[in-house]
Design a protein that fits this description.
The complex is a heterodimer. Chain A is an alpha+beta fold. Chain A has 4 helices and 9 strands, in the order βαββαββαββαββ. In chain A, strands 5, 6, 7, 8 and 9 form a 5-stranded antiparallel beta sheet that branches. A 4-stranded antiparallel beta sheet of chain A has the order 2-3-1-4, with helices on one face. The longest helix of chain A is centred in the middle third of the chain and has 13 residues. Chain A is elongated, with a radius of gyration of 18 Å. By secondary structure, chain B is of the alpha/beta class. Chain B has 3 domains: about 170 residues, Thiamin diphosphate (ThDP)-binding fold, Pyr/PP domains (Rossmann fold, 3-Layer(aba) Sandwich), CATH 3.40.50; about 160 residues, 3-Layer(aba) Sandwich (Rossmann fold), CATH 3.40.50; about 170 residues, Thiamin diphosphate (ThDP)-binding fold, Pyr/PP domains (Rossmann fold). Chain B is built from 24 helices and 22 strands.
Chain lengths: ~160, ~575
């Protein structure tokens, strides 16, 4: 079955490890939808969060191949019901003086922040899960989004389950 | 102990127990070669091309089970190793390849003879390293050999910049390795073993399908024990040849595209496929949905990524072949299991009798299969390693040789590398100096690395090359004949060019040409008895095909050529055969 997966990959924090991981996906024809990397509570380890779509069986094969990389310690295919995921998005939106108020209103509703005010634009910082950010993007589109940048999704499994 | 990086590298090779380096120097590799010059423990062999060096290390590892080191210079030296490394990776052969690199301050500047070899070899090494600090060398080298030789073996590459090999360090061999992400599973899961043993105990038509994993884990004794205990016939893959004695009554042959019909029939009819150290390669399975479709499947492999990759599995066992096979036998003994394969073996033996490998010959023309058969017969009583190139020569060798000892068959499997055989034979001769080492070659393949004839002469390695010279790229021509209406595009060579006998003599080899069957034995014996390297140029029939053959993508019981015999369903209709187990 084809669906989106959020993979949480714990790796050694060494040069070149990200290339090893991502090239494995490319080699097997997967397009990475989102990628976020950062050091963990242990400075010798990094966590790579990868969102990727594909057939379950071929994704399982990629996960097994990932396990074989010497620098990869652990891989979790996070269950969407059992994970907390967030992404940070910056929207630079057209904001003529007469409509600025509406945009600020929208930002407030989504608990987003205005991080830059220009002569004709507002830049909004929003965090959240996919659906919230998609809804916000949809609303802001009516004003004209001039630029958009996203961090890529990060995720952790919920609750008492051992962190991975 | 104080020493520079180059000496540290050589010291580490000695500490890890390497006795052979296949190395080709160049500018930035000089500090390493300068250190190698002093080593008493290491034999350094100079090939004539870096690709040859890697295939030599490959051949050496296949016959000894031990890794050799390859050392080459940066840039073209490094990129010339790529085919050899890919070959070793596909066939899971352990080795460590050292490439010299431009100095760290100029890496990334397109310096003279710079190439990003760690980037290039990322998908074809088990792991690779770029060493930026000379102090890391001992640890990296210890890790590299550990990774190359454990789990599913494979090549590891270490890139060593020129300044690193010149820097003075205090050498210290590491006492422990820090590889938190590398923990191969050796011991099969007890529950899975039990489940598999139950199936084996009950199976009426079981079949062992064994591959290179048996050789990698030295499990040939355990394989034989299990097969004999339960009287299970054994098919070995191209990579697994030698894992089971081929003169044993339970030995079937190689399955797949050019396997004998009876092997493919058995695979199609089996009710329990016991796959150990194999990867269900497409050349074995043909059309996957028809492959062993009546069977439950037990698949044991040390690499979890291989299990279920191509063929769904009923009982997966992640573990080392040696341990898993021993555990299965122990479990079956404990349960007092007895073989129920009498009827099955009668059927298999009947197929074997009715559909043997077959070729037409009238006694006057020199048939390539005859050459291989004569090599087999003339080497019966002497310890022999058979190496092959790739193509028809390889398939005829796999069909007609009888490999009776583990690690005496050397052939490029997964990558199918023409030009592999001669350098691999040279490496094999280094690893087994007392053996007669023969490369069965084609006139196409031998020309891909014939420069290594010089290495054999100068290093006094008395390898033998027998060329099945048909004037074609034979396997390409065969496909063109069968699937491209005899349009021999770019597959026509020339039997007379080069003059192989003269070429042999130019390199200081013995050379002899054979045109007819009556000259064959004398020429082969003379070559095999010659104290130095020798070549026999066998002018074989030009347009002979390797049969039987499964058409690409076809079901393996539907084979072209060979003795008449259709798909196995037709074969089963012969009353005498079916009744035995119904």
């Amino acid at each position: 079955m084809k669906m989106q997966h959020t993979l949480s990959v714990l790796v050694e924090n060494k040069p070149g490890v990200l290339t090893r991981v991502t090239s494995l996906f490319a080699r097997r024809g997967f397009n990475i939808d989102s990628l976020a990397v950062g050091v963990t509570e242990d400075p010798t380890l990094s966590r790579i969060t990868i969102v990727v779509g594909g057939e379950d069986t071929s994704l399982e094969q990629v996960a097994k191949q990932l396990h074989k990389l010497i620098n990869v310690l652990k891989i979790q295919d996070l269950d969407p019901r059992e994970m907390v995921d967030r992404e940070l998005v910056l929207f630079k939106v057209n904001a003529p003086a007469d409509r600025r108020h509406e945009i600020i209103e929208i930002a407030n509703v989504f608990r987003a922040k205005i991080v830059d005010v220009g002569r004709n634009t507002l830049t909004i910082e929003a965090t959240g899960a996919d659906d919230k950010l998609a809804a916000m993007e949809d609303l802001l589109r009516t004003y004209g989004i001039k630029e958009l940048a996203r961090t890529g999704k990060i995720a952790l499994s919920r609750g008492l389950r051992e962190g991975a | 102990m104080k020493m520079n990086g180059g000496h540290a590298l050589v010291q580490a090779l000695e500490d890890v127990g390497v006795d052979t380096v296949f190395g080709y120097p160049g500018g930035v590799a000089l500090p390493i070669f300068d250190a190698l010059y002093d080593s008493k423990a290491i034999r350094t062999i100079l090939p004539r091309h870096e690709q040859g060096a890697v295939h030599m290390a490959d051949g050496y590892a296949r016959v000894t089970g031990r890794p050799a080191a390859v050392i080459v210079t940066s840039g073209p030296g490094a990129t010339n190793t790529v085919t050899g490394i890919a070959n070793a990776y596909m066939d899971s052969i352990p080795m460590v390849v050292f490439t010299a690199q431009v100095a760290t301050p100029v890496i990334g500047t397109d310096a003279f003879q710079e190439s990003d070899i760690t980037g290039i070899t990322l998908p074809i090494t088990k792991h690779n390293y770029l060493v930026k600090d000379a102090n890391d060398l001992p640890e990296v080298i210890a890790e590299a050999f550990h990774i190359a030789t454990t789990g599913r073996p494979g090549p590891v590459l270490i890139d060593v910049p020129a300044d690193v090999s010149k820097t003075e360090i205090t050498y210290k061999w590491p006492t422990a390795l820090n590889l938190p992400g590398y923990k191969p599973t050796y011991k099969g899961h007890a529950k899975q073993i039990k489940q598999a043993a139950d199936l084996i105990g009950k199976a009426r038509k079981p079949l062992l399908y064994a591959g290179g994993g048996i050789l990698a884990s030295e499990a040939w004794k355990e394989l034989k024990e299990l097969a004999e205990l339960m009287q299970i016939p054994v098919a070995t893959t191209l990579m697994g040849k030698g894992a089971f004695p081929e003169d044993h009554h339970l030995y079937l042959g190689m399955p797949g595209m050019h396997g004998p019909k009876y092997v493919n029939y058995a695979l199609t009819e089996t009710d329990l496929l016991i796959a150990v150290g194999v990867r269900f390669d497409d050349r074995v399975t043909g059309k996957l949905s028809a492959f062993a479709s009546k069977a439950k499947v037990i698949h044991a492999d040390i690499d979890p990524a291989e299990i279920g990759k191509n063929k769904p599995v009923d009982v997966p066992i992640v573990g080392d072949a040696k341990g898993v096979l021993a555990a299965l036998t122990a479990e079956l003994r404990k349960a007092g299991a007895e073989p129920h394969t009498d009827a099955w073996m009668r059927v298999v033996d009947d197929w074997r009798a009715r559909f043997p490998l077959h070729y037409d010959h009238d006694g006057s023309r020199l048939m390539p299969q005859l050459v291989v058969e004569r090599i087999r017969e003339l080497t019966k009583d002497r310890p022999t390693v058979i190496c092959t190139e790739v193509g028809q020569n390889q398939m005829w060798s796999s069909q007609f040789c009888r490999i009776r000892e583990a690690r005496t068959w050397v052939s490029s499997g997964g990558l199918g590398t023409m030009g592999f055989g001669l350098p691999a034979a040279i490496g094999a001769q280094v690893g087994r100096p007392q053996y007669l080492v023969i490369d069965i070659a084609g006139d196409g393949s031998i020309q891909m690395n014939s420069q290594e004839m010089a290495t054999a002469s100068i290093e006094k390695l008395p390898v033998k090359v027998v060329i099945l010279n048909n004037g074609f790229l034979g396997m390409v021509r065969q496909w063109q004949e069968l699937f491209y209406e005899h349009r021999y595009a770019s597959s026509v060579l020339d039997q007379d060019c080069p003059n192989f006998v003269k070429l042999a003599e130019a390199y200081g080899w013995r050379g002899e040409r054979v045109d007819s069957p009556d000259q064959l034995d004398a020429a082969l014996v003379a070559a095999f008895d010659h104290p130095g390297p020798a070549l026999v140029d066998c002018r074989v029939v030009g347009e002979e095909n390797v049969f039987p053959m499964v058409a690409p993508g076809g079901s393996i019981d539907e084979m072209l050529g060979g003795l008449p015999g259709g798909p196995v369903s037709d074969m089963m209709d012969d009353g005498a055969v079916t009744e035995v187990w119904e």
